[in-house]
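[job 0412] stage=fold_complex status=start
inputs:
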Amino acid sequence: MTSLGKKYIMAVTGLILVGFVIGHMLGNLQMFLHPDWMNAYAYKLQNLPYGLLWIVRLGLLAAVVAHIVTAVLLVLENKRARPQGYSVNATLQASFASKTMRYTGLILIAFIVFHILHFTVRATHADVTAAYYALTPIAGVATMHGSADMAGKLVPDVFSMVAVGFSAQFWYVSVFYIIAMALLFLHLSHGISSMFQSLGLRNKTWRLRLDRAALIIAIALFIGFASIPAVSLLGLLPYQEMVNTGVTVPTALTQP
Amino acid sequence: MSAKTLNLTLRVWRQKKPEAAGQFVTYKIDKISPDSSFLEMMDLLNEQLIEQGDEPVAFDHDCREGICGMCSMTINGVPHGKNRLQTTCQLHMRSFSDGDTITIEPFRAKPFPVMRDLVVDRTPLDSIIQSGGYITQRVGSAEDANAVPISKTIADKAMDAAACIGCGACVAVCPNASAMLFTSAKMSQLNMLPQGKPEKDRRALHMVQAMDDNGFGNCTNIGECEAACPVGISLDFIAMMNRDYAVAKVKKIFSGAA
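[job 0412] stage=fold_complex status=done
writing structure:
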């Protein structure tokens, strides 16, 4: 595949992943609302018709894998193109973020793996697993997920799972999440504008606008994502009193 | 002429032939006029070396007025030195201070092997041009230049791309040794004009292929090339190339012709 073909793959998969990340952040922000919001939302996602959940998951996995494999190929080719470096290295104007894409990307892979084990597979902390499986009834608060009609229905307590996962006893988890989100900020502050250049949809005027838009989106994503572990760590969620802590693990349910 | 002169320490890359191992050699050079150009300073260094019975430093140069694209050298980590919009021959010693140590290296890239000292072989850039950086025109039947109307905007933009002197500084400054700024300028100067339109798609496909075949790296859109370019070729042309190539590729997939 040509150099430009690889750049197109980076741009298109990057666009898919940025789209996902924006949606994911908006979904996560429901942690600041009544637990019914998060729990009904999670229930709805888990029970999407036509196996849509797995279609989306596999699509995202394909995008991540393509993004990473192509990045590795590009980095190897780039290294081959300059076998002997300079004894004096100078940077004229390139941003820190643009020069560290491979490193921020690499740490983000580690974060994604941990994040899936933490909250999707729930294999890292027994308390997180317990909070999830200690089913909770939907209170019947009106949300956009139709929870008013679900009142009394027992659903996994995703709200408590997240609050417990980020609570003070697991402070190092929250710190890791916040650092990872700072790296995501760096990665996207270059990436969101760069993808338009790779697809040939940028000129001098639009470069400035897209650079600014990328910075704003990256900052919004950092604040949106990092606020959840930060606030949970401090125990300051608006519905903190509804967090179900200290549940015992039902043995039959620890193995999903 | 200013009375003040510069005493400098030069760390120069010395390499006898392509396959030989090179190393930095340090030279002292005194009483350099701030009004002399960088290449004149190199000439003085060589006179000094010849007087001492040493081999002079080989470096590329030709017009010495920033037009030919022949001079190269990476000066303190920056091709053509730190001043913007200048070639090495246009760089003057007033840009340096007395007592400075200046590190002078050849342009570094796999496709640019060092021939001797600071001279590198930039033939791969020619092979990119040969793959599509031309228009086909029957000899002796050239139309009158004004017969084909071209808008001022397009003409200006094509002229901006055509300003490329093919020196290879974009390759040298790029952390990936990518030749995308050069290739895109040489491609866009023709793709934008009516005379270049008939071969636009084929040009895009062939020039990108030639660029890859020569072993240049990939673009990471960081913009160092634009900043180092002595004639200010814009990153816009790389975007234009990315677009032209994508369109040509799609057309080729669905029509088979290019």
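[job 0412] summary: The helical segments of chain B are 38-51, 123-130, 152-162, 169-173, 180-191, 200-213, 224-228, 236-255.
[job 0412] exit 0
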